[in-house]
Structure formats: C-alpha cells, structure tokens
C-alpha cells in the first residue's frame, strides 16, 4: 500500500503553487488585459532555438523561440480536453481556462507570438545556459523538440510544467528549478521550529486543500506529514 503522506504533501504543494501561476488582472478590470501590439518586442536579437524566460512577480514563464515571432510554450488549459476546435484553443488562455486546466491536469504546448507569450513582461534570453554548461543542445535540435511536442499534453505544477518543457527541449533533461526552490522553502518553514505561525498556516491550507474531515485530529494529520517533509 502506498504511503498517503507524500501524496498528500504533493497535492498541497500543487494547490499552493496554483495561487502563484494565476495572471493577476488590473484593479477594476472586468476582463483579461490585452497583450501588447505586434512589434512591441525587438525579435531581431532572438535566434531559433533560444530559451525565452519571462520573470513574473512570483514565478517565471518559459518558452522556446521558433523564429518569425513564434514561441512554443506549455500552458495549462482545459480546452484541449473538451474540444478539437483549433481556433478556440489558439485564443489567448484566460485565467479561467488556466485554473480549470490545472485542476484537470491538462495543458497544451502551443505556439504564440512573442507578444502573447510575454504578455508585457521583460524577456531574458538563454539565461539558464549558465546552469547547464556543456549540456546545451544545438539550436535546431531545441526548436525541433519543441515543435514535435506541440499539442495537448498532461500537466502538473510540480512535475510537468513550462520549465520542464523548455529544459527538455534545450538541455535534454526535464527539470524545474523554481519547483525545487518552492519545495525546499516549504520544507524549511516546516523544519524551523520557530516558524510556528507559518506551520499552522500550512496546516490550515492542507485542511482546506485536502478536504480533511473536521473530526480528524490535528496531530494525526500533521505529525506524519512533518516527519516525511523533514526526512
């Protein structure tokens, strides 16, 4: 029988990470903010196969440049699982589609313009190359891998997100440093005996996210969870 504690911890982390992947809307806005007009970004410095990185406030979004103002990137999206209409799927992913995609664990590797991909954010080019040194694949190989994966795919905030996609394409190994950093941060909070309040908040979040019955005692829930995270 599988240990339910690691599975519960994984689910909790995914629920928390969902909160930082939602694209915030401007105050008073009733809909999605339109992306910048074409030509907003200077794409002359981008080369086919480049890894594009867009830092956000709480997370980073990644894509592979395919040339001609096109970027392949992985986005959680519910539509590929309920329709085959390419025109609908190709429309810019809204927060509602994104959230439902995360819940349903469905996504798509889509090709968008640089403007739609970056959504007004600044773009870093091949910023992760320094972490992989000699593992960088050829530009054409990276672009070819990205193009081959275009279409519907499974999704996981922790195990199969946009960073896993680009690191596989450009470096040959699907990894996510921001996921690792997030998991380590949660572990540090739980390990630190002085962070009682933070631990309580994580505990309350787990009750909400995991649907723990009110009759279940807190020690029964959290002692095994803390032991596993500290291991």
Write the layout of secondary structure elements.
Elements (H helix, E strand, L loop, with lengths): L3 H18 L29 E5 L4 E8 L2 E7 L9 H5 L4 H10 L1 E8 H5 L5 E2 L3 H4 L6 H10 L2 E4 L7 H10 L5 H15 L4 H15 L7 H13 L1
Helix pairs in contact: 1-9, 1-10, 6-7
Number of helices in the DSSP assignment: 10
Strand neighbour order, sheet with most strands: 5-1-2-3-4-6
Q: Report the principal-axis shape.
A: globular
Per CATH, the architecture of the largest domain is Alpha-Beta Complex
Query: Mean pLDDT, nearest integer?
Result: 77
Low-pLDDT runs of 5+ residues are: 15-22, 24-30, 210-231
CATH superfamily of the largest domain: endopeptidase domain like (from Nostoc punctiforme)
Beta content comes to: 5-15%
Radius of gyration: 19 Å
CATH third-level topology of the largest domain: endopeptidase fold (from Nostoc punctiforme)
Major beta sheet summary: 6 strands, antiparallel
Order of helices and strands: HEEEHHEHEHHEHHHH
Quaternary structure classification: single chain
The N- to C-terminal Cα distance equals 20 Å
CATH classification class of the largest domain? Alpha Beta
The counted number of beta strands is 6
Helix-and-strand structural type? alpha+beta
């Amino acid at each position: 029988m599988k240990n339910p504690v690691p599975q519960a911890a994984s689910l909790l982390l995914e629920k928390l990470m969902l909160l930082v992947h939602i694209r915030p809307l401007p105050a008073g806005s009733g809909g999605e903010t339109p992306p910048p007009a074409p030509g907003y970004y200077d794409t002359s410095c981008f080369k086919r196969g480049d890894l594009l990185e867009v830092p956000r406030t709480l997370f980073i979004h990644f894509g592979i440049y395919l040339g001609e103002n096109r970027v392949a990137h992985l986005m959680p999206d519910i539509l590929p699982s309920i329709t085959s209409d390419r025109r609908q799927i190709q429309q810019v992913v809204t927060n509602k589609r994104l959230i439902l995609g995360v819940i349903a664990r469905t996504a798509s590797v889509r090709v968008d313009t640089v403007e739609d991909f970056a959504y007004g954010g600044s773009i870093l080019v091949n910023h992760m190359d320094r972490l992989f040194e000699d593992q960088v694949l050829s530009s054409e190989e990276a672009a070819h891998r990205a193009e081959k994966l275009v279409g519907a795919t499974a999704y996981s905030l922790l195990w199969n997100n946009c960073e896993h996609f680009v690191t596989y394409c450009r470096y040959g190994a699907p990894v996510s440093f921001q996921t690792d950093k997030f998991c380590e941060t949660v572990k540090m909070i739980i390990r630190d005996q002085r962070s009682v309040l933070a631990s309580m908040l994580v505990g309350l979040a787990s009750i909400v996210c995991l649907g723990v019955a009110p009759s279940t005692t807190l020690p029964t829930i959290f002692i095994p969870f803390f032991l596993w995270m500290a291991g």
